[in-house]
Amino acid sequence: MAINQIMIDELKEEEKETVRQLLVESYQQYEHEYQSAQVWEEYLRNIKASVDNPDVEKILIAKSEDQILGTLQLFLSSDKAYQKPELQISSPVIRLLAVHPEARGQGIAQALINVSLQFAKSQGANQLYLHTGDKMHKAIRLYEWFGFKRDHTKEFYNHDILVKCYRYDL
Hints:
The protein is α+β, with helices and mostly antiparallel strands and 170 residues long.
């Protein structure tokens, strides 16, 4: 898939279904790594419902022409992002970064992260956080290449999966 120009915008109501489908297609590759079909189905339900989460501050989308190729969600704290005030993150948190499988490797995730960094700075934050799991090897390499550092103090378990935290110091 050849991409001309990437535009980052905020999600509009009429784009929600397209973004739900994009999230499912982007995360589908991890299905076989879940210990049970029930846990995978729960994860899919949560991903789909996330587009309507009232606690999300912004949902960004990456477009080329009229096609949505990527998305991510921004929250203002760990309480808003995960209902986990005990993590004590009072800076913006990225969740559910997704790029369509056919559009990967073309700078879409980087563009979304760059806009997220600008957002965090506009909020007066000193950090930008995200959480991920071991199964997301390529994403972790991207985050580390970008300059995110592991923050063991803000990690937690979801079922039996360690949810790793990465922090970018602004």
